[in-house]
Write a structure and sequence with these properties.
The protein has about 300 residues and is of the alpha/beta class. The protein contains ten helices and twelve strands. Helix 6 runs parallel beside helix 8.
Length: about 300
């Protein structure tokens, strides 16, 4: 079967495990994407990942600009505080943005990237997995439309740093430094904010190791709690998000393939770039998530 004409040239910034396992396969397989290349700080890493998908390899400071010039959009698989300034640079080059979460761990850096995207007028999507997974995305939309929620409870515990953990992401320096608050906190906020409204008050307390407990108030008047961490025992790890309200209790369904979910995020970026309509999970939402988590981090530091 003949492939249709390409609609958007997209380059990939980053060549780590997330790029290798999720983003590169999704971009290479997408019918409406021309996968223009992979940039990485290490030339050999860019060459290996690019070679696996039949696209070009870029590296170095000039190389990132070359990839921007060859692309209509760029996808990021980088630590957040490396991602943000490069996202601003990509926007200034006229590239649409497909960002990883969190956009940044600094409010100033996230705001600079958001302002660059707005100033140039490029489309943006932040890949909060649950907003794009086939089972969870319609569930979130349904709960947001239903309303009448009284409270929500979330527990997202990973075992990256527990004895016996074998995640390929455990070697990530930024995850080890920032912990569950910044790694899985954006996922929880991407569910509870659509259902309960923006966050108006934040309370935070530390648990064992990197575990953090949040209590949030929302514009709807509802409250939510979240327990976030990456150091739980393997047997205790897992995800549960529950909304409680007029319709009783409803739980977030299990979601599946990350590659397929990322493909849906690509679809969302294509639609936003084509129509000029902002997506609900765009860089402005990413900025808001950074603001909330930075406030929680400040409370924890005090």
């Amino acid at each position: 079967m003949t492939r249709p004409a390409k609609q958007l040239r997209i380059g990939l910034i980053g060549a780590g495990p997330w790029a290798e396992r999720t983003q590169a396969p999704a971009l290479a397989a997408h019918r409406d994407v021309d996968f223009t290349g992979v940039w990485a700080r290490r030339p050999e890493a860019a060459a290996v990942l690019a070679g696996a998908h039949g696209t070009g390899a870029f590296s170095g400071d000039d190389g990132v600009d070359d990839l921007f010039a060859a692309s209509d959009a760029v996808s990021f698989a980088l630590p957040p505080d490396i991602q943000a300034p490069l996202a601003a640079r990509a926007a200034e080059a006229g590239c649409h943005l497909l960002l990883d979460k969190p956009v940044a761990t600094s409010v100033a850096a996230a705001r600079e990237a958001a302002q660059a995207a707005e100033r140039v007028g490029v489309a943006s999507v932040v890949f909060c997995t649950l907003r794009f997974a086939a089972d969870t995305a319609p569930w979130i939309a349904e709960q947001a439309a239903a309303g009448g929620w009284f409270t929500a409870h979330a527990q997202w515990l990973g075992s990256l740093y527990a004895p016996g953990g074998d995640s390929p992401y455990a070697a990530s320096p930024w995850r080890r430094e920032k912990g569950g608050l910044w790694d899985v906190g954006p996922h929880v906020l991407s569910v509870v904010i659509p259902a309960l409204g923006d966050v108006t008050e934040v309370t935070a307390a530390r648990g064992p190791k990197d575990t953090v407990h949040l209590v949030l108030r929302h514009t709807s008047g509802a409250s939510s709690t979240a327990t976030l961490g990456l150091s739980a025992p393997v047997a205790a790890s897992g995800v549960r998000i529950e909304l409680v309200g007029d319709r009783g209790r409803v739980q977030l369904p299990v979601w599946g393939d990350a590659v397929r979910s990322f493909g849906a995020a690509v679809d969302a970026l294509l639609e936003s770039a084509r129509t000029g309509r902002a997506h609900e999970c765009d860089i402005r939402f990413g900025l808001r998530v950074t603001e909330i988590l930075a406030e929680a981090e400040l409370l924890l530091d005090r």
